[in-house]
UniProtKB/TrEMBL annotation, chains A, B:
It comes from the Bacteria. Residues 267-374 form the D-serine dehydratase-like domain. It is an enzyme of class 5 (isomerase). GO terms for biological process: D-serine catabolic process. This is Alanine racemase. GO terms for molecular function: alanine racemase activity; D-serine ammonia-lyase activity. Belongs to the DSD1 family. InterPro entries: Ala_racemase_N, D-amino_acid_metab_enzyme, D-ser_dehydrat-like_dom, D-ser_dehydrat-like_sf, PLP-binding_barrel. Its EC number is 5.1.1.1. Signal peptide: none annotated.
Length: 390, 390
C-alpha cells in the first residue's frame, strides 16, 4: 500500500492515558466483528459487499473492510477515489451525482487504471459524460441513480420514460454499467418490520429500473443497493448484485438508536480529558468539544437523545446515563441525562473518558488519525492516518 | 511569516467558476471592513483587541486581524498556539482550561520565546501549574477564569473565597496574570438592550474578581472579556484591559440572526456546484453537503431558521428565501424557505452557488484553505491554507 497507510507504532506506541487529547480511538476488535457480521449476512443472501469508504477515509481501514486489496469500494468524493487509488484500489463507484466539471479528474483516474464508475440522474449529466467519452475515446462507465424513497437524488422507479431518456443520452458513447439506489429514509428506523420494509422497497425500486432498461435493450449488469440499516435487515436480495454500506464498520449512537447495532458494537470513540467541574450544576467539563465530536446531533430526533455523545470509561464501558449534555468548540459539558437519578462518577481534573459519537461519519471527519486499541486494553496498537477534503 | 502562510496565486489564480467544489471562499473586502469596524469601536472604548484565532486557523488571516505580527492573540488549542508561534506570534492566551498533561507543550512554547498564558479555575489545575513552574524555574503565567453567566467554566464572581483559594494555590510559584471571562450566553441575542446587558454583566463580573484579588494583595494586570456580540454592544469597558473576539472577522448567519451584523457583512461562504434537481419537489441538489457546510444548525433556534445555509449567487448576493433545506454528507438540498412564495432560481446542472454558513467556526473547520475573492469579483486573489487538529 501507499505512504498514506499505517504508521505502526510498535511496543512503545503508548497508551490511551498518554495521548494528546482530544483524539479519535478505534477499537479494532469491534471493527473486525462488525465487518465479519455483515459479510456473513450478505454471503447468506447471495450479494457481494462494496463497502462505502466515506466514513473510513483511511487506507488502513479500507484494507480491513474490502474483500480484496483492489476493491470493490464506494466513495463519496474524488479525493477519496484518488487516495484509495494511491493505495491500490482499482474498482470504485463515486456515488454522488457527477458534476461535469469533475470529469477531468475521473478521466485521470481511468488513465491510471482505475475503473471509476460515475453516477447520474439527468440528461444534462448523461450528455456531459457521453461528450467526455467521445472526446477521449474512453467509454466512461456510469450508473443511473434511482430514487427509492424520495430521500434525495435519483429517478423514481415509476418514471420509466425519464429513465430511458437518460439511458439514451448516455449510450452508446459512454457505458451504462447499471442502476444504483440508497435507502436514506431507513435511517429513521421504526423497528424490525419497518427496516425490512425499507430494504424491500430499496430492492424493488432498483430491480424494477433494471428490468425497464433491459426490456428496452440496454445492458444493466450491476444492480446496487445500499445503506447500513437495510444491509442488516434485508431478507431477500433477488435481482441485486451488490450491497453498499459504510457506517457499519464503526457503528454509532444513531445506528444503536434504530436497533441496527448494540452500544457495545460501536468501535469509534473520542478520547477527552477532564479540565474542570461546575459541581453545583452536576457538570464535568472536558476538552472534548464539538470540534472533536462534530456538531452532529442525530440522536436528538430519536427516542433516547444522547446529547453530543455517550460517555464511557477508558476501557470503553458506558457510565450509567452520562452524556455530553452540551458542547462548545473546545469544551464538552458532561452531565447525567435529564430525568435520570444516576450519580455523577468521581472524575478528577486530568482523568480521561471515551465518548461514543452520534454519527461516526461526522465525528471521524474532525480527526486526522485513528488511534487503534483492542477491546478494553488501553495499549495503542497503531496510528492509522485519515484524510479529508475533496 | 512561515511556510504555512499564503500561497499567492497571481494573475493566473483562476476564478470561482474554475475551482474544485465544494470549497471555502473568503471575501477579503468584507473581512477587512469587519476588522476595521471592531477596532474602531474598541479604540473608542479604551480597550485593546486580542483577536481569537480559533475561527481563522490561518496565519494569513491572523496577520490581517492582529494589531501586530507578534500579537496579541487568543487561541483555543495548543495546535493553534504552535502554528501561530511558527508564524511569529509571541503573545497568546490559550483560553481553554488547562489539562495538566498539556503543560509540557506549554513549556516548550515558552522555551521558544512565546508568552503563552494558560487559563484555569480549580485548585487542582493551579497546583499542577505551580508544580510545573517550580520544576522548570519558569513562572508559567496563568489567568483565573470567571463564570459571568453560568454558560460553561469558571469561578462565579461572587465566590470570593474560591477565587482566592485558587490564586493562593498558584502564587508565588506561577504567575497570576489576571482574570478572564466569556459571555457565552450573549449568543442567545435578544435585541440591543439584552446584548448591552450581557456586555455589562461580563464586564462587572471580571472587574469584581479583579478587585477581590487585588484587595487580597494579588496582582491582576490583565482583565479580559470577550465574545463577538458583547464586543459589538458594550458601551462601557471601565476596568477592562482587553477584549477577545473571533467570529467577527467572518461573521455568519447566527450573528446576523442576533443582529450583530448584516447578511452582507458575512465574509465566508461555501462554493458548491449544482448536480441535479427533483423538480416536482422544488429541490436543487448540489455537491455542498454537511461535510462542507458542517452539521451546525445554529439558526434552528433563532427567529429565522436558515437550514444548513443561505444560498447566494456567484457574486455573493442572496437569492430570495433560498436555503439549504437539508443536507447529507456530500449532497445539499436547496429549496425555498417553508412559507415563502419566492420562486426557485433557474440553476442548471454545473451552475455554482455560494452558501453563507450558520456558524463560521464550524464551517471553516471542514476546509483546508480559504479561496480569497474581493467583493463581487470572482477572481481568486490568493489561497490561504488553514490547519486543524489539536
Amino acid at each position: 500500500m501507499s505512504p498514506a497507510t499505517s504508521e505502526l507504532t510498535g511496543p512503545s506506541a503508548g497508551r490511551l492515558e498518554e495521548l494528546e487529547t482530544p483524539c479519535l480511538v478505534l477499537d479494532a476488535a469491534r471493527m473486525e466483528a462488525n465487518v465479519a457480521r455483515l459479510r456473513a449476512r450478505l454471503d447468506g443472501l447471495g450479494a457481494s459487499l462494496r463497502p462505502h469508504l466515506k466514513t473510513a477515509k483511511s487506507a488502513d481501514v479500507a484494507q480491513r473492510v474490502m474483500t480484496s486489496v483492489s476493491g470493490p469500494a464506494t466513495v463519496s468524493t474524488l479525493k477519496e477515489a484518488e487516495q484509495f487509488a494511491d493505495a491500490g484500489v482499482r474498482d470504485m463507484i463515486y456515488a454522488v451525482g457527477i458534476a461535469p466539471s469533475k470529469l477531468p479528474r475521473v478521466l485521470e483516474l481511468h488513465a491510471r487504471g482505475v475503473d471509476l464508475v460515475v453516477v447520474l440522474d439527468t440528461v444534462e449529466q448523461a450528455h456531459a459524460v457521453a461528450a467526455a467519452s467521445r472526446d477521449t475515446g474512453l467509454r466512461i462507465p456510469a450508473m443511473l441513480e434511482i430514487d427509492c424513497d424520495g430521500h434525495r437524488s435519483g429517478i423514481p422507479p415509476v418514471a420509466h420514460e425519464r429513465l430511458l431518456e437518460v439511458a439514451r443520452a448516455l449510450v452508446p458513447d459512454a457505458e451504462l454499467r447499471g442502476v444504483i439506489t440508497h435507502a436514506g429514509e431507513s435511517y429513521r428506523g421504526g423497528g424490525v418490520a419497518a427496516l425490512q420494509a425499507f430494504a424491500e422497497t430499496e430492492r424493488a425500486a432498483v430491480v424494477e429500473a433494471a428490468e425497464v432498461l433491459r426490456g428496452a435493450g440496454f445492458p444493466c449488469p450491476v444492480v446496487s443497493v445500499g445503506s447500513t440499516p437495510t444491509a442488516h435487515y434485508a431478507t431477500d436480495l433477488t435481482g441485486v448484485t451488490e450491497v453498499r454500506a459504510g457506517v457499519f464498520v464503526f457503528f454509532d449512537l444513531v445506528m444503536a438508536g434504530i436497533g441496527v447495532c448494540r452500544l457495545d458494537d460501536i468501535a469509534m470513540s473520542v478520547l477527552a480529558t477532564v479540565i474542570g467541574h461546575q459541581r453545583d450544576k452536576g457538570w464535568i467539563i472536558t476538552d472534548g468539544g464539538w470540534m472533536s465530536l462534530s456538531r452532529d446531533r442525530g440522536t436528538a430526533r430519536q427516542a433516547v437523545d444522547q446529547g453530543y455523545g455517550l460517555v464511557c470509561d477508558l476501557g470503553g464501558t458506558p457510565y450509567c446515563d452520562l452524556i455530553v449534555a452540551d458542547a462548545n468548540q473546545e469544551h464538552g459539558i458532561i452531565a447525567v441525562r435529564p430525568g435520570s437519578d444516576a450519580g455523577l462518577p468521581d472524575l478528577a481534573v486530568g482523568d480521561r473518558v471515551r465518548i461514543l459519537p452520534n454519527h461516526a461519519c461526522a465525528t471521524a471527519a474532525q480527526h486526522d488519525a485513528y488511534h487503534v486499541v483492542r477491546g478494553t486494553s488501553s495499549v495503542i496498537e497503531a496510528r492509522w492516518p485519515r484524510f479529508g477534503g475533496w
